[in-house]
Amino acid sequence: MEETYLLNVEGVKKKILHGGQGELPKLQDGSKFTFHFQTLKDDFERTVIDDSREAGMPMEIIVGKMFKLEIWETLLSSMRIGEVAEFWCDAIHTGMYALVSRGMRRIAEGRDPLEGQKHRCGMGNMFDYHSTGYEDLDELQRTPQPLIFIMELFRVEDPSAYKRDTWAMSKEEKLAAVPVLHSEGNRLVLRREFAQAAAKYQEAVICLRNLQAKEKPWEDGWLKLESLVTPLVLNYCQCQLELGEYYEVLEHTTELLQKHNDNAKAYFKRAKAHAAVWNEREAREDFQRVAHLAPSMAAAVKKELKQLGEKVRKKHVEDRKRYQGLFQSGQGLKGLPPKAGYS
């Protein structure tokens, strides 16, 4: 179809590839677009940068929530349900794409989209280059350029028609959601539904981390939020212990202890994870720290150390029997039959 400039939008051309249905959706603050997109360079090869179908999940943005790539809200507002359209956007509209893409890629990889983000004012970030962690996005960040977006709009929902994702909530909504999620997690733990409980604790932590990103580290507002984060992380780690995800427990407790090196509960959970993966020395060191920091936990520590000792001794006995069996059968010499003089 014919390529046309969008009405009243400078530097954008639209080509409808497949017509949609009905009228243009009526939008209000909080309306949610759900769509697939493909981002291409404006070069001879039309090099693909991102494709939401390959990531396995459609994109969602909320009207009026100051999405970093503001032009996308404008593009989608010009589309009907079921429509597929190609948009050419001048560099004046695409300067933030690298940062938006980085966040979307991290979410698709199961990582925190704010990971590594520094607390800096907007003016400071504007003049200070940081790597996105992706070579192709670093190029876009250094040299903003026109991009092509191919979008397929699936649906537009009113604010009352869907459950609000935490990233779309206001500060007040996030703060109100945290105790609810904490309580739901505790209820699921009582029912021994540890995976579902962990998801609730994780969602609450994400709410708080997003709020913390807007505070200056170690000042009052940040510390107040951190005091809410810590018990949620510990609860999450306890669920992961129950689920046998010991290395995840090691990662999260170590991160927590880098900020709060006097947290006995974090040491205790990390010690149990070390013990589960046969890090005997590290487990004993952490248990000893627990006994020093929290004498009231001494009995629990003594019990865990006894269990660890028994577990280690049992493993040593089993290992000796296994090795003796290998050499007695000749299997210790790469399967060759035993030579004369060897038993």
Can you summarize this structure?
It is built from twelve helices and seven strands. Strands 1, 2, 3, 4, 5, 6 and 7 form a seven-stranded antiparallel beta sheet that branches. Helix content is 50%, strand content 13%.
Q: Number of helical segments?
A: 12
Tell me the series of helices and strands, N- to C-terminal: EEEEHEHEHHHEHHHHHHH
Give the CATH topology of the largest domain: Serine Threonine Protein Phosphatase 5, Tetratricopeptide repeat
Beta-strand percentage? 5-15%
- State the shape: elongated
Termini gap? 84 Å
Largest sheet: 7 strands, antiparallel
Rg estimate, integer Å = 27 Å
Classified by CATH, the class of the largest domain is Mainly Alpha
CATH homology group of the largest domain: Tetratricopeptide repeat domain
Quantity of strands, as a count: 7
Task: Tell me what the CATH architecture of the largest domain is.
Answer: Alpha Horseshoe
The SS-based structural class is alpha+beta
Portion of residues within helices: 40-55%
Number of domains: 2
Q: Average pLDDT across residues?
A: 84
Poorly predicted tracts of residues: 117-129, 332-343
InterPro entries: AIP/AIPL1/TTC9, PPIase_AIP, PPIase_dom_sf, TPR-like_helical_dom_sf
Keywords: Cytoplasm, Repeat, TPR repeat
Subcellular location: Cytoplasm
Domain AIP/AIPL N-terminal FKBP-type PPIase: 29-154
